[in-house]
Design brief:
It contains 1 helix and 27 strands. It is mainly beta.
Length: 323
């Protein structure tokens, strides 16, 4: 699939990158979409981060972005209280769906014919839409969170939706009944929620902890306590490793089976790591930061400055930085 030049600014975001989304392999590589608080959705080459185009929001922040499996349809949500659906190939807006508050999270199913959205506000809602319905009347509205919805994802072959909220809960919703089928309470609200590429596992980061959750059984498979507050996390497609980021610009890669530290990367600006996502083949870990930069951390290559810091080294450094 070739993409047209859609205009806009070819540099990085002017404000925090709050979400990243990869397409599946399109035959010639991946597309990477980014949502920025500067009001833009940007499209880039998924290996090199070379700029392809931008989808603009007039002066409003973009909080979330999602791509269909083939990368042709994109959804975004933002501070203008709308979710928008885009034709990526033509760079054309297909739908603008109003919401009662900021749309902080969106997701598309693989066929890109269904959209789920999550709102902030005092009465946050999770709403399911059939994008083939011309008037965009909701198929289902899930109500039960007491504070804003932070992240969400379709799961279990699109039969359910997984959500995390500032009320410190993670819930699974049944798309047929509209009921909350499963729920867990966390000590802190989740900073990251990622459905694994295989669809069977969820990575959740909160406070100084990371958990891996089995979707089908809704059971914790692994709980890892870290020496730092985790601001972002992602699991390798082969489940061989996972990557965590923190507020000081460090990214750490660990072996999944042993939790041993494998590599670390320092973004030299020192900005907070706001989002992490592995490419579908696991060869790239895309890093979003609060200063608007996107770093493509190429795996199995030594072109980056790699620092072999241990958790103990990091904890000492973090204490010194906050003293």
């Amino acid at each position: 699939m070739s993409l047209p030049d859609m205009g806009g600014i070819g540099d990085g975001h002017a404000d925090a990158v709050v979400e990243l989304a990869f397409s599946r392999d399109l035959g010639s590589g991946f597309v990477l979409a980014s949502a920025g608080l500067d009001g833009q959705v940007m499209l880039r080459n998924g290996y090199t981060a070379a700029w392809i185009g931008s989808l603009r929001r007039q002066g409003m922040s973009v909080w979330s972005v999602a791509l269909g499996e083939d990368g042709k349809i994109l959804a975004s949500g933002g501070g203008d209280c709308t979710a928008r659906v885009w034709d990526v190939v033509l760079g054309r807006q297909l739908a603008k769906i109003p919401h009662p508050d900021t749309v902080a999270s969106v997701d598309l199913n693989r066929q890109a014919n269904r959209l789920v959205t999550g709102c902030l506000g005092p009465a946050p809602l999770v709403t399911l839409f059939d994008l083939q319905c011309l008037d965009k009347t909701p198929l289902m509205v899930f109500g039960g969170h007491h504070r804003g919805v932070r992240d969400l994802a379709f799961c279990l072959d699109n039969r359910c939706v997984l959500t995390s909220s500032y009320d410190r809960t993670v819930k699974m919703w049944d798309c047929l009944s509209g009921e909350s089928a499963r729920s867990i309470v966390l000590p802190h609200h989740a900073k990251a929620l990622e459905l694994h590429h295989g669809g069977d596992m969820v990575t959740i980061a909160y406070g100084r902890s990371l958990i891996f959750l089995d979707c089908k059984q809704f059971e914790v498979l692994k709980h890892r306590k870290m020496a730092y507050k985790v601001t972002a996390a992602t699991l390798h497609p082969n489940k061989e490793s996972y990557v965590c980021g923190n507020s000081m610009g460090y990214v750490y890669k660990y072996e999944y089976s042993t939790d041993a530290l494998l590599l670390s990367y320092f973004y030299d600006n020192g900005s907070e790591i706001s989002f992490l996502r592995f490419s579908p083949d696991g060869e790239v870990c895309a890093i979003g930061t609060t200063n608007g930069s996107i770093v493509m951390w190429l795996q199995n290559m030594d072109k980056w400055n790699i620092y072999g810091l241990s958790d103990e080294d990091f904890e000492k450094e973090e204490e010194e930085s906050t003293s």
